[in-house]
User: Fold this.
Amino acid sequence: MTTFEKLLENYWFVKDKNEEEYNSVKQDITEEMQSFIKNKLGYKLIVNPYLIKLEKVPGVPKSFMGILEFETKLEYMFLCLILIYLEEKSRGEQFILSGLVDYIQNLVAEIDLNEIKIDFTIYSQRKSMVKVLKFIKEMGFIKLYDGDENKFAESVENDILYEVTGVSKYFMRKFSSNIVNSSSYTDIYESEQLGLEQDKGIERRQRIYRRLFTENVVYKEEIDDQDYNYIKNYRGAIQQDVDKMLESTLEVHKNGAYILLTENKNFKNTFPSTKAISDVVLFINKQIKQNLDQNVFEKNKEDLIYISNVQMSRLIKEVKEKYQRGFSKEYREMEEEKLLKEVVNYMKEFDMIRENQETNEYIIMPMCFKIIGKYPKDFVVE
Assistant:
């Protein structure tokens, strides 16, 4: 994996956590790489004695861009509250978990968290707190000195000793405008567009490069889609950058564009991957293509397929019956309702399907026809 790929793949590199990796990345940052990051992506690269961080901003916000370990609003709230607490701490300063808990309880008593009430006597909330503590420990915000987070989940009386590393101050990036009055992520996104270069040509270029390098696929969303037209018109120049920075290929079709990674690339959140659910979805895509070829499914003029909830359930059931011999034990034995939920969530994450809540339909996107799976002829299940 190249240094640029490492910067793109990882949130940051903390020197105290892995000094060898920090030094390696720092040494391999070239002027050409810095120029691409600044001019084509419009990103900021932070290099200081404590960490190296490429501040990645989406071209268009997507659901998969959140913290994958988190499942609830409460966990994000705990993260923000802990960041406020750590802001007042110095590098190397120690604190105990009970002190943090008291701080949070006192702080939330003064602010309105709408429908959420924080109460550490509730097991589910302590469990969420533990998840956040493990996340920030893994990120390098804190070091564990004594205690066990899992025991805090069992009882609020179990205390833990931590040490502050100081890097949490670099976790949140500086916004280009005041977000105090923002009521949704779209407000923040729109204000952040002002942080791009004011020249409209540069602004568009940076947004499109961000989309191609951070999204799984960039679809043509309307007849005169300016972003997609840019990709088509400048595909040669974009391909040169993709080849230079990722050693991969830019695929541009009439309704979608994406970067096709070479076989030796192994990013965390790409499709297909080594995850068991990825195998299942590859065969679902195969079945979608077969249904299309056999006129069971029909594409509209935008190459979209609309199917009902019942059809989606039937599709997944059919795939399981035909191809489960190569699935992991978990997915071979999984109940149909749970399998449907996991498959739908995974495919929505990669923008392979979209859900229309009003019509109770699923929209199968063009990417499903491009990447399918099959077993090799000599495949045998042991």
